Amino acid sequence: xxxxxxxxxxxxxxxxxxxxxxxxxxxxxxxxxxxxxxxxxxxxxxxxxxxxxxxxxxxxxxxxxxxxxxxxxxxxxxxxxxxxxxxxxxxxxxxxxxxxxxxxxxxxxxxxxxxxxxxxxxxxxxxxxxxxxxxxxxxxxxxxxxxxxxxxxxxxxxxxxxxxxxxxxxxxxxxxxxxxxxxxxxxxxxxxxxxxxxxxxxxxxxxxxxxxxxxxxxxxxxxxxxxxxxxxxxxxxxxxxxxxxxxxxxxxxxxxxxxxxxxxxxxxxxxxxxxxxxxxxxxxxxxxxxxxxxxxxxxxxxxxxxxxxxxxxxxxxxxxxxxxxxxxxxxxxxxxxxxxxxxxxxxxxxxxxxxxxxxx
Length: 360
Description:
The protein has helices spanning 5-25, 27-38, 42-69, 72-91, 96-124, 129-149, 158-174, 190-198, 201-230, 235-263, 265-285, 288-291, 295-316, 322-347, 352-359. The protein is mainly α.
């Protein structure tokens, strides 16, 4: 039986995207356990998130540059190494400093992977790019769902989770399939390219949608377990609902890809963002028991914004190169990092719910 190289490449990228998603989001559902284990504060979660997203942004630029100067395959292999190292360091961390370094390595690896991974998928399936990117994005939804369920009572200790991720990432770094590389040359510098893209209205819109989705994902949804546990709900229940929302986003991302191919990015983004804000407000404004109900659609609609934003930025790039994707993703993640540090400071002076509502 002949194996289709295109499918091998797609499923390898899918697997590494899944691994990156679990590693970079596992901290949030496990934080109530980690916080008591190594004596952290709620505000430390936003600080760690800021460090992770900052390194993700730097990694996005580095991944784009490596994809252009060397190859997407080299960037992907480095990403797997970084995720493995960061997950291993996190698994043995005994204080805030070591935990931050471990999470920064994970963020750097996730950032390195994003641009070459997304641009490779877009080149593999150019005729149905919206649906291909949405299908590829399912790896992220599955990864987020798995991360959410890791806080369940039957799950292994939090350190074991990170150790398992490290082992998987090492395995993925050993054998990287050949990827469909970008054959178009990029002759302008990084700064000029960023200025050129900033003049593109589609690129700016994609970036704004990405910042909204990223901030909501990392900060608002990231604080949901801690906020509801502090209000008397069980960690397994809250993270279970977040996990169900991640699973629901699998169908949601297919719908997002279909909507993009049918109606285009701006109309799709407007509809999804409006629903996300409505359900997010209900999560934060309702009493704790009632606020649990809209968690699932809130998480789902937030996840749907990502493939729409990604598809919009791919369509706005003339060369479809990893470097262009890297600039976009770096801008998004660095913006989220700055906001994370800002809200970490706010959490030291205001209540968790008030800060979450402000972030939304």
